[in-house]
Predict the structure.
Amino acid sequence: MNGHRTPRRASAGPHLLPSWQRSSSVILFYLAALTCAALMLVAGSLLISGCGSDDTEAADQTATTAAASTAAEPAEGTFPVALTDDNGTGATIEAKPMRIVSTAPANTEILFALGVGDRVVGVSSLDDYPPEAAAIAKIGDFQANTEAVMALSPDLVVGYSGNEEALAPVQAAGAPVLILNPMTLEQIYANIAMVGAATGATGRAAELVESMKAQIKEVTEAAAATGESPAVFYALDNTLWTAGPGSFVDELLTLVNATNVASMPGADTAAAQAYYQFAPEQLVAADPDVILLPGSIYATADEFTADPRFAGLTAVKEGRVLVVDDVLITRPGPRVGEGLKVLAEAIHPGVF
């Protein structure tokens, strides 16, 4: 489960996607800052003959302020830039892209968080954040529509694993395509850096990653301070599909000091994988302390707790079956820190 989409309510296992979705011109940037400062100082010196010392000091202060303001701006990337995506495929972006297509919600969130949302001309119909995405042309849902993408004449396509076939003709037509498929937090950070380099937002990407790391560090430290590691079952849908070892969700559960029952030694080792389906008897045997249900499928926990098969579970008896915002938790984008906090608050009540 890559978080680019949420499993649908179904009578069978969900159709899951594969697990998910640096160059800098710092020297030029500082030269520009120094140039601006020099120009301001020259202007100030030309006014000396007609101004008092106070005016000279004011001009100097203005120059200093201008230089400091310029230095505070994030560094921009340089072009052309050669990148390698998560499929190991190389792509060269010759110039700053001005018509970007995103084929997955997490990718769109990254682009907007990097401040290049005004250059996004196409998104999937599943995109629900930020609100501005609603007004952008749609290029498909779970699968990108090749013709719809090409009709937008993109100069960059940010896709995800599973859309390769649909995007192959776009790539053949000359548009660079980057496929994102992050499976860990570190890979999410790397994807943000890659998209930042591809769009000319290198500095913003670095700032965003540092901000995310700081938030995640705060959450993990707060969860660890509880000294508790309750057993948790994380449901992906209403048929007991769950996140096992090696999954992105499993990593997040570990970070909030929880024990994922789907990754415990007692789990069915033959079935246990990144995403697989629990049998009801497995869940009963695991008897988790906490059960988390996806808010995209469950309005309340009643549907689950009313099932007589699960009446004896510790989580049911103690009222710890909770509906959580699964979009925040499973979408590997800039809001993953918020998703981690949702997990921590659900598993460790009162931690924040």
The first strand starts at residue 81 and ends at 84. The radius of gyration is 25 Å. Residues 26-72 form one domain. Confidence is low (pLDDT under 50) at residues 1-73.
